[in-house]
Amino acid sequence: MCGIIGYTGSGRREAVPILLQGLSRLEYRGYDSAGVAITLGEGRGIVTRKLAGRVTALRELMDRLPAHGGSGIAHTRWATHGAPHTRNAHPHSDCHERIAIVHNGIIENAETLRAALAGSGHQFTSETDTEVLAHLIEQTPGDTLEARVIAALEHVVGTYGLAAIAADEPGKIVVARRGSPVLLGIGDGEYFVASDASAVLEHTRAVVYLDDGDIAVLTPTSYQVLDREARVQRRSLNDLQWDLEAIELGGHAHFMQKEILEQPETIRSTLRGRLMGDGSVARLNGLNLTPADCADVRRIDIVACGTSWHAGLVGRHIIEELADIPVSVEYASEFRYRRRPRPSGKPGTRLTIAISQSGETADTLEAMRAARAAGSRVVGIVNVVGSTIAREADGGIYLHAGPEIGVASTKAFTSQIVALTLLGGYLGAHRGQSLDSKKADELVCSLTELPGLVSQALALEPEVQAIARQYSDAHHAMYLGRGVNFPVALEGALKLKEISYIHAEGYPAAEMKHGPIALIDEHMPVVFVAPHDEVYPKVVSNMHEVRARGGRILAITTEGNGDLSGGGLVDHQLRVPRTIPILSPILTVIPLQLLAYHTALLRGCDVDRPRNLAKSVTVE
Ligand code: F6R
User: Fold this and answer.
1) CB under 6 Å to ligand 1: residues?
2) Tell me: the pLDDT tens digits for 33-67?
3) CA–CA dist 211, 375 (Å, integer)
4) Are strands 476-481 and 395-398 parallel, antiparallel or unpaired?
5) What angle do CA 618, 299, 619 make, to 5 degrees?
6) Which of 15, 332, 365, 374 could form a disulfide with 72 if both were Cys (CB 3.0 to 4.6 A apart)?
């Protein structure tokens, strides 16, 4: 997704190096173009440099054509309106290049506004909705840039996180937010605006998260948050908890590799201070659910997208088993547009869980809002502290997994399952009959052992690497699993297709004979997720069905499960350590993450920046 960074300071530092460094920190979000606009000061105008391509290319351009100034805005663009092309890259300007603007989000009435502005003589140089905003601000009268931005936004339908500068007010940056995240970084005699905390982390830990409808005005000596009537608003100052090392490679080749290997520690971090040995499983203060609230819950809806949705599918099994509450799991993008009957009974009997690593996914956020409007209490399972979903939910569980920079989600997935287990255990323990104290203590024991077991699963990497060599030329792959491991099959397939571009499908293993079996031949690698659980013998039968049709099989099983390769049933067998069945997805997914990673490397793919993908999908 697009990224924004802006800087203004009292003249001690040049803006360009800070902006370019900020753009590098935002690269992980996915982008196709980059650009910078600098105010030269004393009414000398604005210099804009931009191109379709990488931030390194923009850096080279700035070396050749430098621009000096103490304030400016910059952007990485992920194309929505208009192809990835220099003319469509941000910042965009008005007719006279007196205003420059960067923008995340989508202006839904851009074409209507464009036609009206063109009718008044405005000349457009791009196909973007953002350029429309620049001309709209130009057209709007007002004494200050903020007054013009506020008045212009009256005419806008859609979502935006934007930052604007004007040649006539050097040093000032005006920021606005509706539906697209923006935060302010508060430094010592300098101020930042960014779409993502990682862009400001090396300069300041003090941030202000803007709410929808906020306008912020940054100058070299002050910042102010206003509402649409230009009344000053109080917004709290937050302390970023992440370390700089967390957003750096630290000797790893890729963020994805770093994040896969970090999982013992990230799981430990999700569990830290939460496990209770007194039969109550977990202390979850931020959840804001009293034991009486837990007892009242009659039904749970989980809403999420992508990998978080897969974690939700695992969570359904876990919560139904531990808390004995019916759970439905839905793609947030489908849920938000579906008509939902209002629940009968007292409010609070329905609980919606929004799962999101970034806490900014537009569909998940809207699904959560729709659930609340239909009378549900909402909780978030979120990684990014201070993100919109975290702030809007009635309560929640932070993953504390640290920043996930690799576009393909890995450590968030395992921490999400851990958080869902804590939630399921908490609900079960507080509902009386569903989880007795013996089972609760066994669960706590299994959770405590998990980080060590994940380390053991990670030790499979050399074997996985060798297997990846044999499959890296495949065109298709099928992933099969059952029960709580069916979502792991989906997740394994998603990881492979995202970063290696091999077409992969995940299916419930028993569903295979209802259609997909037609695809099986010697060119189709089939990955079975088959740990030790009650459906293991049935999954082994499915392996026979594949083998009988010449399919190549990789089986992920557990230590202690029988030898499948000796008798020739499978080509490769990897064994992860044994845990209780509901936690097995945390271990079975590890070799699949590694398989996707090594396959992508062998195919020469850019693992951390897969084509067409964005880290955080803040548009519909
Ligand atoms: C997959 C991936 C995406 C995200 C999805 C939801 O590797 O990263 O499928 O899981 O876009 O993102 P969040 O969890 O931030 O809501």
Assistant:
1) 305-308, 356-358, 361, 364, 408-409, 494, 498, 616-617
2) 999 999 987 778 999 999 999 999 999 999 999 99
3) 23
4) unpaired
5) 5
6) 15
3-class secondary-structure state, position 408: coil
Measuring CA to CA, how many Å separate 343 from each of 296, 347, 348, 364?
13, 8, 9, 21
Q: How confident is the model at residue 344 (pLDDT cuts 50, 70, 90)?
A: low
Q: Is the predicted pLDDT of residue 615 greater than 80, yes or no?
A: no
Which ranges in 501-583 belong to alpha helices (H)?
536-547
Query: What is the rounded distance in angstroms from the CA atom of residue 396 to the CA atom of residue 391?
Result: 9
| 181/571 Cα distance (integer angstroms) | 48
| pLDDT one-digit tens code per residue, 241-286 | 888 888 888 889 999 999 999 999 999 999 999 999 888 899 999 9
pLDDT of residue 617: 77
The radius of gyration of the chain's CA atoms, rounded to the nearest angstrom, is: 26
Give the separation between CA 129 and CA 126, rounded to whole angstroms.
9
pLDDT at 245: 82
Residue-by-residue DSSP string for 138-180: HHS--SSHHHHHHHHHTT--B-EEEEEEETTSTT-EEEEEEBS
State yes or no: is 172 an active-site residue. no
User: Tokens standing for 159?
Assistant: 């979502």
Torsion angle (degrees, nearest 10) of CA 160, 163, 167, 169: 110
Pocket test for ligand 1, best of 28, 355, 361 (most atoms within 8 A of CB): 361
Helix locations, 246-305, DSSP H: 255-261, 263-271, 291-296
In this model, does residue 73 exceed pLDDT 90? yes
Distances in Å between the alpha carbon of 328 and those of 311, 320, 424, 428, 510?
Answer: 13, 10, 14, 17, 21
C-alpha to C-alpha distance for 183 and 165, rounded to whole angstroms:
17
Say if pTM beats, i.e. exceeds, 0.85.
Answer: yes
Comparing 224 with 242, which gets the higher pLDDT?
Answer: 224
Atom of ligand 1 nearest to the CA of 413: 10
Say whether 495 is catalytic. Answer: no
Of the chain, the percentage scoring pLDDT greater than 70 comes to 98
Rounded Cα distance between 525 and 543, Å, is 12
Residue 343 — very low, low, confident or very high, per pLDDT cuts 50/70/90? low
pLDDT at 80 over 80: no
Buried b (16+ CB within 10 A) or exposed e, 531-566: bbbebbeebbebbebbbeeebbbbbbbbeebeebee
From CA 377, how far away is CA 293, in angstroms rounded? 10
